[in-house]
Amino acid sequence: MIANQGTADAMMKELERGFTGQLLAPQDPGYDDARKVYNAMIDRRPALIARCADARDVARTIGFARTHDLPLAVRGGGHSGPGLGICDDGVVAELSLLNEITVNPETLTARVGGGCTWGQIDRATHAHGLTTPSGFISTTGVGGLTLGGGIGYLTRRYGLTIDNLLGADLVLADGTLVRASAEEHPDLFWAIRGGGGNFGVVTSFQFALHPVSTVLAGPTFWPLEQTEQVMRAYREFIPAAPRELNGFLALLTVPPAPPFPEELHLRKVCGIVWCYDGPADQAPGVLAPMLEVAEPLLHTVGPMPYPEFQSMFDALYPPGLQWYWRADFVRDISDEAIDRHAEFGARLPTLHSTMHLYPIDGAAHDVGAAETAFSYRDANWAQVIVGVDPDPANADAIRQWTVDYWDATHPYSAGGAYVNFLMHEGQDRVRASYRDNYKRLTEIKAAYDPDNVFHINQNIAPQA
Ligand SMILES: Cc1cc2nc3c(=O)[nH]c(=O)nc-3n(C[C@H](O)[C@H](O)[C@H](O)COP(=O)(O)OP(=O)(O)OC[C@H]3O[C@@H](n4cnc5c(N)ncnc54)[C@H](O)[C@@H]3O)c2cc1C
Question: Which atom of ligand 1 is nearest to the CA of 160?
């Protein structure tokens, strides 16, 4: 906490020397915009936002926070549900200026700045007919998503985002700049593949690219009353499906807007959102078993440039909504769990609220549980229940629905959750999400950040 304005001004002057980015204090124009994060439930007022232009700015910001004993938050895309990219009364290292992207189509690699969003990366790689696996929405930051694991449309085909990470440049807690890869700081490289922002600030990531340009994509919707039939078929279908196919299951309310037909607007449905990256003529045969389960209300799967598909949900979920979520990893979808899903799906509290089951089998299972910090390689789905609404007056209602739904389905889960879908749920939940990898993470944390400078995250405390 900074004592008074005079102290704040003096500190600001100190950091300004040699800082090439932009510094924003509470009295500056632009401060209020800069402190906003994606989840409008989060309203925090840092003492200073340091918009870093390069790794040296990042090192200076870390050093400044340490010297003055101020909390340090690191902000990538600002998408964290619990608002881990911002803090009260501390310093924020804001990375949006670290957005340089270099694509090398010969080596099938891309180097991207640690503050990029996935939309920026997708556009740059798509120009070469290439991509790297990311998530399901394009406004998410590469930083938080990658460091937690990265689950998306191409997970079954090419693995998690971390399975495509070749290396990263980081500024450590003591201000030094290091490269982590299989050859350099391999322990650090292991830890940042799932361990979140606990170990340093990543200023650039290097990814492997794959030839993905146009995919066959779109949703199938069934009446909500057929949730049980659809989910029973889906739990058998996905693990047996070719890796070229991804389909996440959703319980949702059909948005009242094109391209959805008017007669479906605001109807609650059970849906699967497909993404197929195999031979086009084989797609109908691959999808046929699911379409035979029950007569769909809608089935619109067609060719789409990958970045367009990747940003299909951006308009439905703009920044500034209220978000509350709860999550679990799921190994098998039990009959009992399906009953609970049908029950809570019928009580979706708002248009934007939903439940998703993201497949994490296929190529994500090719990597062993101890090969990266992300330990749940034996789970088949990452489940997330999200209460979402634009109106702050509905915040309690969406939170309550989410918590009740989670309480009802958690007993049928694998135990832990994807760290990027956790709220502030305490150390036991973080530990449960890393299982046997937790101890090694605490040792690596002790080696690279013994004072826990990077603690505004799903925190791994350094081993004593
Ligand atoms: C609408 C929405 C859709 C989502 N969809 C997916 C999805 O499809 N797949 C998926 O896997 N996840 C998804 N997520 C979850 C997402 O991965 C996490 O919220 C993630 O933390 C967001 O990263 P960010 O950089 O945008 O967030 P921020 O809030 O900026 O940061 C989150 C955490 O990461 C740290 N961090 C960020 N950048 C860096 C960096 N460069 N170096 C060090 N630490 C850093 C921060 O300090 C903080 O602790 C989604 C989230 C939302 C809100």
Answer: 11
